[in-house]
Amino acid sequence: MSNRKLNVFLPLLFAVVLAIGMFLGHKMPGSNTGGTTVFFTKPSKGALQEVMDLIKTKYVDTLDADKVQQEAIEGLLAHLDPHSIYIPPSQLQSVNEDLEGNFEGIGVEFNITADTVNVVSVLSGGPSEAAGLQTGDKILRVNDTLVAGNGITPERVRKLLRGPAGSVVNTVLLRQQKKIQVPIKRGVIPLYSIDASYMAAPGVGYIKINKFAATTFDEFMKAMRKLEKQGMQKLIIDVRQNPGGFMDAAVRIADELLPDNRLILYTKGKAYPRTDYKTKRPGMFETGALAILTDEGSASASEILAGAIQDWDRGTIIGRRTFGKGLVQEQYDLDNGGALRLTVARYYIPSGRSIQKPYGDGTSYDDDILERYHHGELVNKDSIKITDTVPYTTNSGRRVYGGGGITPDIFVPFDTSRFSPALTAIYTRNALGNFAYQYYTSNRETFKRYKDAEDFTKNFHTTPELFSEFKTFAQKDSVPGLNRLSIHDEEEIKTRLKAVLARQLYRTEGFYETVNANDPVIKKALETLEHNNKH
């Protein structure tokens, strides 16, 4: 376009833009004060912000504004559902790390006894193993900070040990009564969401998922490939005590278990139109016999997975009624470094049911599990309270209910005999874990004969001598009733003692492989899969 034409065209363009602007300004809400003023009027702060500003500037005394603000936010959220929460800046990193599936640090597990930081295990392939740390080492100093004998807390130790990958932390350790200096180059440490995957019986694979994080699907596929190589034809997925996490992880795992183009769930909210999540690809395990293990601690994403499997009659749900969380949250970062996790939609599983349990109607949401225990639901299937009286049907026409979790197809009661005074004291004092650490560090040579968790589970036995040694240890820790243990208590202690020693050697993989050998829910799942060759 020539300059002359441009000189004629530009004034015309400006006139058109100005006319459109004046018209739009006139049509905007609140524009009756004059079309253009809307662009210069400051938005109203709202009473809450006004009050906060007045307190900061005018109040007679100095206040901790952050604390007041946090309490105000929490007060506001208390009027919403139980899952809309404020995450303060101090907690956001650990909350995010848990779901991201990793953190940056040195890769050790530790416990604190008598003001001493003990290295309980060293992560295989991690920075601490590369630096030569060993189970049994005691950490005395981290950089310039003394961490022994001064009321040190686990949070403080974690803060000192964690830091950017590639940075170096200088430690002073006590090993066999000698002080040694060990520099450790920090790295990215995985937080695994699959605790164990192994063959629970010939042809039957077992996978334990502790949460649904960013890395869960990849971990699940790796476990499935390993089990398939070992001849897996049937599968147990254990989501007991799994509080949920990312919905996407549960959807992707369900896609591996269900045929193509099946609805897994749909979400719907005031500002969120219905969104359907369907299976998209050929799955790894669409036809083999399948069991999902649930309990009152299985929530959210765990319920999505169990619900989709139940509604399509793809497998058997075994255990106890799930938690009952059918609300979807989104996390919004705030300017102060914290975050708001806000409920934005409900989710509905394929039969159309919402499994969200009641809240805000006078019932105690947080005490719901305790109430289930008191009215006998954990030990008696007939005591399960159905809060949603409208029945739904599965793909084959079986009747199911919403409004308070997913009721299992096969009920297995909770073992209430585990609450004897002696066992309760042993668990609350962590006597088993503390003893296992001490016993292992004193007898590590004797454990070298076991090549893996499977070998240990089959061939290690809790001898009378080991049991007696534990009782002596527990007596020093003031555990009551050790001289009048029931046969059940003795068996429980022996099983758990073996399991915590397996954990000391092989982490969670060893613990679950050992403890599951006597688990009634696992036994019921193996029996059920024996009779269900296909679903």
From TrEMBL:
Q: Which GO terms describe its molecular function?
A: endopeptidase activity; serine-type peptidase activity
* One GO cellular component, as annotated: outer membrane-bounded periplasmic space
Give start and end of each PDZ domain. Answer: 92-176
One Pfam family assigned to this protein is PDZ_6
One GO biological process this protein is involved in is:
proteolysis
- Protein family per UniProt: Belongs to the peptidase S41A family.
Q: How is this protein named in the record?
A: Carboxyl-terminal protease
Q: What is the species listed in this Swiss-Prot or TrEMBL entry?
A: Chitinophaga flava
